[in-house]
Amino acid sequence: ALASLVGALLWLALMIAGMASAGPLDTFDQVVAYVSRLDALFYAAYVNAAFLVTIPAILFMTALGRRCRSVSDSAVELGAAFIPIYGALNLVCYLSQITVVPMLVELRRADGQQALADALLRMMIHQWPSSAVAFFNALAYGLLGIPSIIFGLALTKHDKPAKLGGVLLALSGVASIVGVVGMLIHSKALSLGVMIGGVLYVLALAALTDHFRRLARHPRPRASF
Fold first, then answer.
1. How far apart are CA 65 and CA 81, in angstroms?
2. For residues 112 and 124, which has the higher predicted lDDT (pLDDT)?
3. Average pLDDT over every residue of 155-174
4. DSSP class per residue in 11-66
5. What confidence tens digit (pLDDT) does each residue in 125-152 have?
6. Model pTM greater than 0.85?
7. What is the DSSP letter of 125?
8. Residue 3: which region, alpha, beta or left (left: phi > 0; alpha: psi -120 to 50)?
């Protein structure tokens, strides 16, 4: 939980720093110009997203599912089944930004290849809202929303710190799913659910980190949820 929280906060800090240095990103040309810089901040953000956000989230949610005992085994298994799918989608989305996108940027600079490179970049740039990568990244969090709801509801049946974290985790899952639906029906308002879900997930991690810290200091026999 703590590793996930630190990674998420670092991701947020890197993205804010990147946006601050990028200037307006309202058009595709502006986004391409920003991405084409391929500076250290760009690489740091996506390396962090892959290895300090996604992988700790996989481990945390898997461990959380194994501790859930107040919901049926079938519900836990259903939730757990979406965790590796989330992980695979997110790793592809984030790592493609530091592998595929730089190659397409170089292709764009070649004579006569700009049109082809631009078509591919429109699909691959994570920060271009209508790209395939942006959608699959949101879809990954929408899928993670399913175990977030199941495990979050299990946490609400326990003491106050766990209950707060569980409510926030479940709400983050709902918001992420709503966000994916919004992207599918091209609703900007509903699409904000992905961002709202991310904020709620960070808050849930903060609450659960505190809960597990307290639990570690005062362990209970066979502590489960």
1. 10
2. 124
3. 89
4. HHHHHHHHHHHH----SHHHHHHHHTT--HHHHHHHHHIIIIIIHHHHHHHHHHHH
5. 999 999 999 999 999 999 999 999 999 9
6. yes
7. -
8. alpha
pLDDT at residue 224 above 90?
Answer: no
Residue with tokens 């992988």: 55
Any idea how long the chain is? 225
- pLDDT of 158: 73
Between CA 146 and CA 170 the distance in angstroms is 9
Measure Cα distances from 107 to 36, 111, 116, 144, 152 in Å: 11, 9, 8, 34, 45
Closest CA to 61 of 148, 141, 3: 148
| Structural tokens at position 122 | 């429109």
Which ranges constitute the DSSP H helices of 156-224? 160-184, 188-217
